[in-house]
Amino acid sequence: MSLLNNYFSNHFLNSINFYQTKVLAIILFLLPFSTILFSQTMNIDENYFSPKNRLAFGNFLFIQEDYLRAIEEYKNYLMYIDNDTVRFKYAESFYRIGKYNEAADNFKSIFYGSLLSDEAKLAFYKASFFNSSYNSFRDICKMEGYQSEKYAKDINRLFLISHLMDESILPDTNHFLKAFPDSTKNKVRELYMMKKFPSKKNPTTAMLLSMFIPGAGKIYTGEISDGITALLTTGVLAYLAANNFKHEHNFRGWLFAGLAVFSYAGTVYGSYASAQIYNAGVRLNFDNEVKLYFEKRNYLLPKINFLKTND
Amino acid sequence: MTAQSDWVKWDAKEISYEIHSPTHHDYTIDKSSFGLRILSYARNAYYYFISDVDGDNCPFFPSCSAFFIQSVKESNIFRASLMFTDRFIRDMNLFKNNNRYSLHATKKYIDPINNYLLEEKRIILTTGEFIE
Amino acid sequence: MIKKIVLFTLFLFNVQVNAQNQISIQYEYAHNLMKTRQYFDAITEFKRTLFFDIDKQYSYSANYSIGECYKAGAMLDNAIQYFSIAQYNARTDDEKISAQLEIIKTNILRRTTERAHQILNEIEKISSINKDSVNYWRGWAFIFNDEWKEAANSFAKINPNHELKKLAEQVDMDKVSVTFAKVISYILPGSGQIYSGSILPGLISLGWNLLSGYWTVSAFNESRVFDGSVLLGLIWLRFYRGNIQNAGDFAVQKNNEISNKALRYLQHEYKGNRP
């Protein structure tokens, strides 16, 4: 670079007079500064790691959904300049990669004295909803100082939905349904009722049924072919035992009798387990349905618009 | 352009050229107690002399013998026998309920011992296809 | 007037050269991170290079390097994605071909060898391409699909005495026939296992078949039809069927061991180009 400058300047110096040389010297002296001046107008700062460029690059990464890298850029930016929008995006990046704890903490830092205070509170509750247990989420909902007037209804709805996600005591039906918009009321009522009155099978009933008729308990839990197989196996073994005793094959008699007892006891045991598996299945299906329904509708929360644009 | 795998910082990793062939049986000896050690030897003998040469008969994962050893470890010999008997009867059922079990990579029905310890919280269901 | 123009040009030139310096320093920085195997951070810096590279002079090389980083981190889908972007941004045929070769090699590693063959067939039509290199990678694609005979044929097209041709040929010769192992087990239980080198399991299998066969036949001879049927159904048939199935399994296992031995050599000792 300096070589090039020298070449040009030498060439010129030969052909210009002293006055011109003075002007030229000033210009040459100022030349390096032109880069800064010009590049700023072109938005290419000298230093790619300046806060401004960090932010520009971070926003680009955010849009590319490359959140972990975006976090690094935002973090560096925030070390020099405090900006609520950037703070929000920083926290949001944590949220989007599933680091709910960090997300919640960072949203909290925009709670007070910020134009984004309400949005931050909403996002904070959303992050807390996914972070750790629903129980602690509900505790947070009751805490003072975190309430947002603007999004109170949305946060309350999230509070109610959390009751469908775990084994807590359901709020009163009317109070529960009142919080949901009409378009979702029917489905929410259905889910609420499924949660309140799950179609479960009683393990003890299953066990008792199999005690009377081997395998009947399994049929009760919907495992029809397992139940029939258990009945046949126990029956055949008992028959073989009786038959061998009858023909005085005592060893075989005892052998089959022992197997028959095992088969009977195993079936009784298995029927209890089968009812439990059935119930676990009911719960899993319900959980999946609830999750799918609300996930698809973003938990009925409003979208935060400024996150979509490159600002 | 999503780069989802970059959401966790990663390091260099070499890809093995080798063909991965699943081993049929786990022959490791459980040394946690004398009883389990004897049982593991018995299981290994069963694997070598019978299970390996009588074909792939068990439709479940883990196989019946592994299921038995695991249940002894988790409970006691009496309860393990009941669990094993129940498993064996379900094994004999020719018309298995496809909705009840999810499939393992080896195309076997996943049937972990956790589901039979009579503790509902420990039950593992891998898919939501259990009931229609 | 001329002086003014020259001065202004100088001014612009200065800006341009400075910006160029800056971007090339950034690119070098990313490259050094890659050289020191800090692939995750290298990708960040390559992305930064691309973001600030207004003249798009690194659109090819930075994307190519991002592909290399992902490949080193075993994230082959991402690697292929970035090699494809590099290919799209290639300025010369050579650049295009080397991006395509990387896509082929990554597909080989990913074991999507069908795609590798497809691209190899496409680039073979380019006149400037080195045919040896096409055949070389085709051979590797066959190896990764466990087709050693075809691999040997591909390497032979480069050189009849090619090192990898000899290796692939040897592997192909050493392998046992799965079908043959199964067929002879139909006739004599256990023979398939013995053929695959598992002598003791073969003998155990034969023993079980003889024993259960003897029990079954003697039960029927003594008119114990129920015992005979149970023995036949639950024991003898089980061991007979199992024997055939196992003869196949043992043969496959043996073949895998043979392939793996060669693959281990290729991965850790072979000095030539690897995918």
Could you characterize the architecture of this molecule?
The complex is a heterotrimer of chains A (311), B (132) and C (275). Chain A has helices spanning 2-13, 18-41, 51-63, 67-80, 84-96, 100-108, 117-130, 134-142, 152-165, 173-178, 182-196, 203-212, 216-220, 224-246, 250-296. Chain A has 311 residues and is mainly alpha-helical. The longest helix of chain A has 47 residues, at 250-296. The two termini of chain A are 36 Å apart. The model of chain A is unreliable at 1-16 and 34-43 (pLDDT under 50). Helix content of chain B is 34%, strand content 3%. Chain B has a two-stranded parallel ribbon. In chain B, helix 1 (34-51) packs antiparallel against helix 2. Chain C is mostly helical and 275 residues long. Chain C has three domains: 2-124, Serine Threonine Protein Phosphatase 5, Tetratricopeptide repeat; 130-172, no CATH class; 178-265. Helices cover 81% and strands 0% of the residues of chain C. In chain C, helix 1 (2-35) packs antiparallel against helix 2 (39-52), helix 4 (76-88) packs antiparallel against helix 5 and helix 12 (199-221) runs antiparallel to helix 13 (225-268). The model of chain C has no long low-confidence stretch (mean pLDDT 91). At the A-B interface, helix 4, helix 14 and helix 15 of A face helix 3 of B.
What keywords describe this structure?
heterotrimer, B: 132 residues, mainly alpha, 3 helices, 2 strands, globular, disordered C terminus, C: mainly alpha, Serine Threonine Protein Phosphatase 5, Tetratricopeptide repeat, 3 domains, 81% helix
SSE layout:
The complex is a heterotrimer of chains A (about 300), B (about 130) and C (about 280).
Chain A: H1 2-13, H2 18-41, H3 51-63, H4 67-80, H5 84-96, H6 100-108, H7 117-130, H8 134-142, H9 152-165, H10 173-178, H11 182-196, H12 203-212, H13 216-220, H14 224-246, H15 250-296
Chain B: H1 34-51, E1 60-61, H2 64-74, H3 77-92, E2 109-110
Helix pairs in contact in B: 1-2, 2-3
Chain C: H1 2-35, H2 39-52, H3 59-72, H4 76-88, H5 93-109, H6 113-124, H7 131-144, H8 148-158, H9 163-174, H10 178-187, H11 191-195, H12 199-221, H13 225-268
Helix pairs in contact in C: 1-2, 2-3, 3-4, 3-5, 4-5, 5-6, 5-7, 6-7, 7-8, 8-9, 9-13, 10-13, 12-13
